[in-house]
Amino acid sequence: MRRFLQKILTKPVTRLANKFSSKPDLQRVHTALTKLYEHSLTNPGKKGLLLNAVEADRFIIFSDQHKGAKNGSDDFIKAEPNYLAALSYYYEQQFHFISLGDSEELWENTMWPVKANNKITTEAEKKFLQTKRFTKVFGNHDIFWNNDPFASLQLMSMYGEPVKVYEAVVLHISIEQKILPVFLTHGHQGDGQSDTNPFSAWFVGRIWAPLQSYLNLNPNTPAASKELKTKHNLFMYEWSKLEKNPVLITGHTHQPVFASLTHLEHLYKQLMDARERKDETLIASLNAAIHFRQQEYDYVSGNYVNMKPYYFNSGCCCYSDGDITGIEIADGMIRLIKWKKSGASSERMILEEMPLKKLLT
Length: 361
Prior knowledge:
This protein is an alpha/beta fold. It has eleven helices and 14 strands.
């Protein structure tokens, strides 16, 4: 019975949630992002943290862990081994860890079970904090960190010292005597689902979470609500390409984006080049890769060939197969990376990369 209900209810329930609770609007998104970015520059340290960096500095950006209560509706369980392996690697390699929102799933859970059931990952994150290499940003699912009067006490009990949680981070990266501005925020700003929409909170907490737990459903796959996520990513891209705006990195949609393109769109561009060069071996390899990626997300923008490389999305750390994705900024490069299981261990994969200096233009 459970499998039958899972088969017939997953799509309609997800569509219903999105229809009534999430209606991204271009102007609202752009206004919210501009206001937050300008506030971060004029009032650094309040809503947004301003960090000065050089080309050789190292940052890892993960978002959307959605750490839960280790029950049937916890989307983080399968991804936890890869997440812990990744944090161990980045700690040893001297990266600064930016957790870009929705780290804790606090729409479906209260703080107490989340805190009690995620002590191992909290300890791994704490190591970055103790070496002053940890920045925490809130998202829509853990907006608790921004608006609850007891949030600071909860953070103190988790990490053992005060933790400031921001809405945004601005990186000013010095490259060849120029400054590359990079704006990081969770990405829910201006989204009808997430901007204090009471229906969303009610639906997720009272209907979706119990149903997800019973049916063992995972809505946090790249294909879920793909039209909505793609539309929101497009709004983010349109904002980032405006003349005075910075490079933008967000999470929120769970859909990885590198240089304004999904990984699938990058593969299509590579396929076009391989066909021009008549590289049959590479064509076969790319067709196989495209077939595989289409199982994860199949949207391709009609204008993907001409899009400018101003927008990036870290994806998420709660895919149903346990993989996690993130954005690295390190040693003069920006990369879209994936961590996945390889036998008994976890493997880091570079999906896309480019020199940071290409973003200066």
